[in-house]
Write a structure and sequence with these properties.
five-stranded mixed β-sheet, 9 helices, alpha/beta, 12 strands, 36% helix, Nucleotidyltransferase, domain 5
């Protein structure tokens, strides 16, 4: 049995899966806000309750924003800033009495979809999280490529490609720079654009619904979002030329993205044409947590 934990900014999700990938159990609890000790306890509580209910002992994998620095052994680059500078893997291992494996949540998405999702059978998979933040992960031959500095796939903190005059210098980012892709493609960024156009506050989900109801401001926001996403993915395709790009996170539920963006990407990629599939994650919101569970090989379960 494998247990996966997805440590999000607003929720912590746990899943237990069998060797065949079948879901045995799923649970969610709210993420304690700004309280590191309470986060550790919430994760440990989910693991213990899953094992008690299933009467078994499992490996534990964690999908987390940010990454464990190879230099310090501490979390870095997390937009859940309470995690930064903490030995999350060691603290959880001590609390649970066993080793745990931790990977960036977007890496876990890419792994999940490469194993048995939208990119099953593909060799090179780039996974995207479009949500409160913008993450990216890379899986090659069903193995996560974290990189020498553990920043593989962090496309969200590159500048928006081919910026227009009104996109420079760009909004401030939590990373300390301005104009990062994340500041244009996150859910809050889409909401900000709509507020600027309409004077009204809507969530990203509400903006998509409003666009379907002929809200001109919402439609304009989504068209601009699609173009920004296409520009950003074009740089990834130019560098990696992946077999599949998988979109996850809450904004991936905007159905128009997978129809509109591939056509727009073709205008930015350095090629005479592309046929790179850009698809939604099959496992949806559960892809990150499933990828966390798959961090342990079959022989370790």
């Amino acid at each position: 049995m494998r247990i996966g934990i997805d440590l999000g900014g607003t929720k912590i999700e746990a899943i237990a899966i069998g060797d065949d990938g079948a879901t045995l159990l799923r649970r969610r609890v709210p993420t304690p806000s700004g309280n590191y000790s309470a986060i550790l306890e919430a994760i440990a509580g989910l693991v213990r309750s899953a094992e008690q209910e299933l009467a078994g002992h499992g490996t534990v994998g964690i999908a987390s924003p940010g990454a464990i620095s190879p230099r310090t052994g501490l979390v870095k680059n997390s937009n859940s800033t309470v995690l930064n500078g903490r030995p999350l893997d060691r603290d959880l291992a001590a609390k649970l009495g066993r080793p745990v494996r931790i990977e960036n949540d977007a890496n876990c998405l890419a792994l999940s979809e490469a194993v048995d999702g939208a990119a099953a059978g593909a060799d090179v998979v780039f996974g995207v999280i479009l949500g409160t933040g913008v993450g990216g992960g890379l899986a090659v031959n069903r193995t996560i490529v974290g990189g020498r500095n553990r920043i593989g796939g962090e496309w969200g903190h590159n500048p928006l490609p081919w910026p227009r005059d009104d996109e420079r210098p760009g909004p401030a980012c939590f990373c300390g720079k301005a104009g990062c892709i994340e500041t244009f493609l996150s859910g809050p960024a889409l909401a900000r654009d709509y507020l600027t156009r309409s004077g009204s506050k809507l969530t990203a989900e509400e903006i998509a619904l409003a666009a379907d109801c002929d809200d001109v401001a919402a439609q304009g926001c989504l068209k601009l979002y699609e173009d920004r996403l296409a520009r950003s993915l074009a740089t990834i395709i130019n560098v990696l030329d992946p077999d599949v790009v998988v979109l996850g996170g809450g904004l991936s539920n905007i159905t128009e993205l997978c129809a509109a963006v591939p056509k727009l990407v073709a205008g930015y990629v350095f090629s005479d044409g592309i046929d790179t599939p850009i698809v939604r994650a099959v496992h949806g919101d559960s892809s990150g947590v499933r990828g966390a569970a798959w961090l342990w090989p079959v022989s370790s379960a």
